[in-house]
Amino acid sequence: MAETAREAWITGIGIVSCLGEGPDAHWQALNAGAPSPIAPAFDPYIVHPIAPLDLDKQIPKKGDQRQMEAWQRIGTYAAGLALDSAGVKGNADLLTRMDMIVAAGGGERDIAVDAAILNGLPKAPKPAAFLNERLMSDLRPTLFLAQLSNLLAGNISIVHGVTGSSRTFMGEESAGVDAVRIALSRVAAGQSEIGLVGGAFNAERKDMLLLMDAGGFLLRGGHAPVWQRAAKGGGMALGSLGAFLVVESKDHAQKRGATPLARLTAVLSDRSRRPAGAISASLARMWQRIAPNLRPGSHAVISGTTGAEPAIAEERAFLESVGVPVRATGTHIGHGFEPQFVMNIALATLALKHQMLFPPADTSGIEQPMQGTPAQVIVTSVGHWRGEGIALVEAVR
Amino acid sequence: MATSRDSLGRPIVVVTGMGVITSLGTGKSDNWQKLTAGQSGIRRITRFATEALKTTVSGAVDFVPVEPFCSSELTERLAEIATEEAVAQSGLGTKGNFPGPLFLAVAPVEIEWLHREALAAESRSNDTVGYDDLLRATASGRFGAIHDRCVFGSVAEHLADTFGTQGSPISLSTACASGASAIQLGLEAIRRGETDAALCVAADGSVNPEALIRFSLLSALSTANEVPEAAAKPFSKNRDGFVMAEGAGALVLESLEAAQARGAKILGVIEGCGEMTDAFHRTRSSPDGKPIIGCIRNALTDAALAPEDIDHINAHGTSTPENDKMEAMGMIAVFGERAKTIPTSSNKSMIGHTLSAAGAVEAVISLMTLDHQRIPPTINYKLPDPAIPLDVVPNVARDARVTHVISNSFGFGGQNVSLVMGREPA
Fold first, then answer.
1. Is B147 one of the annotated active-site residues of the chain?
2. Planar angle of CA A36, A41, A42, nearest 5 degrees
3. What percentage of chain A has pLDDT greater than the value 90?
4. Most buried of A146, B94, B204, B278 (most Cβ within 10 A)?
5. Of A248, A202, A195, A244, the residue nearest A78 (C-alpha)
6. So what's the architecture of A7-106+148-394 in CATH?
7. Do B147 and A211 touch (CB under 8 A)?
């Protein structure tokens, strides 16, 4: 259907991470290459905290802020930045037609309540009754709404008025890839004119560390660039992130006089069960699909690699085989699962805008200086456990 | 083939396989027999202790054993059972190789109490256990199974393995509209021409103490515990909340063209789907009903049908004071005076609210209604609410001519989705 597909543009980005908020803060930090902030409270795990946000700027009502958990505040804030960037904030007529796909996990548990229950259970004469009593009296009634996956989208609807449609995808990295893929497919096929797509992740929570540490996916023993973690056994440094894109048909954008930040040409997703060689094969299959569009010398890769072995070794081998300049953003912003791919697409638009790639942050040899100007950026996702994806983001010149 | 496209030029999307499991039983035939007999699947909770709980009834699926109990494990089993039935009926693909993507509606997966208790025991710090101690336990490297079970994508991952669906499976949540959204994603993918077939599944096995308490603290649940079978009473004046329930629905969608080409039996048509988000409040509907009205109208527009074409409504009908009032208001706004005579039934009166699964479970029941030309009742309708002047098919099933059904699904977070389904095209 490629010959009949409509062109889709990215007309807005909203990004927040440990590097700050917005395009300029991110571009400056990526170019400066200074070590990124790490929250000491989570030692020995490496957690990159969200930069301080003036929440009132995007979530004006304190009541709304109070109803949310940190991940929802980060996401609602980033969504507002994306709407501002696209020039559609407050445009009620447009926002009621705007589609939304959010890639979401869930909200933090009340870990004090959990700890009190775990302490009491072994001593309680009737443990099951004790659990009921404690949960009934100790859980905040509205906590559930701050945890529910689809309530990031719900809060964006309430705070920013995006109400055309609202869908939430779950499933770590793959949720982020598929959210952008479906948003693009709908625009390309004429099922949607304009959509808000993205997600948010709060890394500063021990219940999330617990889930990932159970799987053995976390980096220990100090920070290192993602490609240089093999000596430490590999692993993720988690990072709080919020990232949203406004994806729009070229026609719709031109009619309202919007400027494209980039063309979103293709998004592909895949699933492999990860026997040896499966990741390389998956990336190769997806790369083949976009290869006819690629112009030698003008493209670069922004990798979403997590740092976790053995996935990173296979991604590295594949990227070295295609011989394209590579940058991994995880070194700078950590890993945030659902919004990671969206964030990297947003950072790709910055490289296209500045007509340069940010400098390497790696001494292992895979990140090399780029001679020339990037006109195409390939964004990769190889999730920590599942979730392969590729996007092709191109300059509109 | 001109006839394989709808009036808007899109591929017609049909259903060629369906599966369902609810508290009433396993499979379409058992469920249909009990639904049309007006039976309730709501029972007193026996899965866990109910001391200190305000609600002690549910539509839990206790006949599918999961030991020790784990909600995501049960969700996966329910999804497998419904999907097995649907795929077998469709005859599509080969065992373990389904030729299309998976769209799975599922409650957010999370670490559950059995996992936390196991980690706490491992940490051996009985008096002062906190998350740092649990993290000391995970550092042992012996709890990888908790990660694989409790990541959000885990249920879809296992289903994709079992049924051999193509590509990256999508797990989705639009709260209590999730099941309808799963069908919508399949419908759209086939209309885009990306695939000839899609597997749309919705499952929920959430009846555990914490999930029940979360809804209870929001005052969403019925506390009419004395007679469990009578607790869910949609559209009645004395309705007092929904009854949590479990179940799964699965549908094999195909383009009409592909289904006809392989001589498949066509069970019905997904004619259209509409959405509209409510930005009024996290749990409450906009008092003017505009999002619900807009959602139903969008579904009719997408199906290229007029309000007059609809002759049955499978209501969201949760039995909460708020939902049933707003849903009725929306229907009266869309269908006018006719709303009072369109047979409108709530399956939730019998099976409870299957939450993430409800949209798909009720789509299967809607398609069975079209097939049998018989409408399941809204049971427990003893005390009509004068504010809801609808024909709710009270208490007894009814034979009727049904050509186009609307099934509504509304959820927390302003999620509204309506599906329009019809009989096999002539």
1. no
2. 75
3. 96
4. B204
5. A244
6. 3-Layer(aba) Sandwich (3.40)
7. yes
